[in-house]
């Protein structure tokens, strides 16, 4: 998840390591199921869904750990916004690829 998500990272460079660490830890079976349950099949992951994902206690704990372990001073709000942007853009990228694949398959 981290390698795919980071291709959409366009924020401040000092947040990139923290975002990668959080995305790596979000990539576990139980949390993936939690996220899957939050996704509306028609809307996918929009800003509201991404915000809900960020506000889960699991992600909030990961954010807190990254802020505490960081030698830089990371702002919680900035970190949440960067993570939210990566999640939304990753979903849109995946959805676009899926649409293209279906179009190719239909030809």
Please tally the β strands and state the result: 0
In quaternary terms, these chains amount to: single chain
What's the structural domain tally?
Answer: 1
Shape: globular
What would you say this structure looks like, in words?
The chain has one domain. About 5% of the residues have low confidence. The chain is built from six helices and no strands. The protein is mainly α.
Produce the secondary structure layout.
Elements: H1 2-6, H2 16-26, H3 29-38, H4 47-54, H5 57-69, H6 76-106
Describe the structure in brief.
The chain is mostly helical. Helix 2 (16-26) packs antiparallel against helix 5 and helix 4 packs across helix 6 (76-106). It has helices at residues 2-6, 16-26, 29-38, 47-54, 57-69, 76-106.
Task: Tag the structure with descriptive keywords.
107 residues; mainly alpha; single chain
């Amino acid at each position: 998840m981290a390698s795919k998500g980071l291709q959409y990272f366009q924020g401040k460079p000092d947040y990139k390591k923290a975002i990668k660490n959080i995305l790596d830890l979000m990539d576990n079976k139980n949390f993936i199921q939690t996220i899957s349950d939050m996704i509306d099949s028609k809307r996918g992951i929009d800003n509201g869904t991404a915000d809900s994902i960020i506000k889960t206690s699991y992600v909030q704990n990961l954010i807190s750990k990254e802020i505490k372990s960081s030698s830089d001073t990371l702002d919680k709000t900035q970190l949440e916004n960067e993570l939210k942007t990566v999640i939304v853009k990753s979903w849109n990228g995946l959805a676009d690829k899926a649409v293209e694949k279906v179009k190719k398959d239909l030809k």
